[in-house]
Amino acid sequence: MTDFESFSRLVFAIAGPRAAGLKVDAGAVSLMLDVSEMTTDEREQIESRLRDECEQAGAQSVRIMLTAERVAPRLIAVASGKGGVGKSTLSTNLAVAMAMAGRSVGLVDADIYGPSQPRLMGAEDSKPEADGKKLIPVKGAGGVPFLSMGQLAKPGQAIAWRGPMAGNALSQLVDAHWGKVRDIIVDMPPGTGDIQLSMIQKHKPIGAVIISTPQDLALMDATRAIAFFDTAKVPIIGLVENMAGYLCPHCGEMSDPFGSGGAEAAAAELGISFLGRIPLDIDIRLASDAGTPPALGDSPIARAYAEIARQVGHWIDNPKAPAA
Ligand SMILES: Nc1ncnc2c1ncn2[C@@H]1O[C@H](COP(=O)(O)OP(=O)(O)OP(=O)(O)O)[C@@H](O)[C@H]1O
Description:
Layout: H1 3-15, E1 19-25, E2 28-34, H2 40-56, E3 61-67, E4 74-79, H3 87-100, E5 105-109, H4 117-120, E6 129-131, E7 134-136, E8 138-139, E9 145-148, H5 149-152, H6 163-174, E10 183-187, H7 194-203, E11 207-212, H8 216-231, E12 236-247, E13 254-255, H9 262-270, E14 274-280, H10 282-289, H11 300-317
Parallel strand pairs: 2-3, 4-10, 4-11, 5-9, 5-10, 11-12, 12-14
Antiparallel strand pairs: 1-2, 6-7, 8-9, 12-13
Helix pairs in contact: 1-2, 3-11, 6-7
């Protein structure tokens, strides 16, 4: 490994995407560090850690230029080909599990047809306030800040936005005061309509997670969603199989009402990563309806979400590497 590579790894491990413009010249290390929205203590801490660890790794001198440019959060789309396959439930639990793993994560509910995140995040009564023209996200389950299309509509009002109106609403959610949030999980509407196009053309997600049930028809829809992101050059992070296998709460027997393993086989065929499978479990629906995402707990289901979150986090940090 060259000096540049080893310092680059070290710097990235400490400062992540806040570090830029690294130069290593005969032992002299210099870099820019984005300290926007950090407290003075946090700035000093990260700066002295970078300095100390670079010196320990053999740097003769370390020059750190502090900048305070706003770091735009990275968007990760959660999408499905059709409705009702569990996309919103996965989005909530993925965001919560990523937050529990220490990531600075937020959630945007872009589902204009059925915005369900206020309920799933246990914050139905909280409305976002605005600071100037920008919305301030509301804190939901696990302390995850989120914004939802549902918060922009009056209670009980059906949202029938089309084209530019829906696009503007989406921009309000994405370009909000996200503060320290680095990654935003976006719960997309099902299919490939106006919002999806606006999302891809204007907001450019860094990757997409596709969710499907194991059935053939749902998988065909998922394949269409994958093709949509492929055409738009949004990389696919991987495929999640939901409602895979049913554990009978009475007799304890496992059955496969929608078949099993279909999504994993489809992922292999399409050459994309398979991120994991979530069983059909009544507790997921009950906990979700109660606004306490199962990912908050320590059940086997929580661990399944945590494992998906780990792989997504790994992909975000190593965008060119396949999910581990
Ligand atoms: N693994 C699961 N086990 C049991 N119920 C589940 C599971 N995943 C989701 N559900 C339930 O299925 C229903 C649909 O889930 P969800 O709203 O997440 O789907 P969706 O794909 O986002 O749907 P829509 O397109 O309508 O927004 C919800 O009642 C949810 O609680």
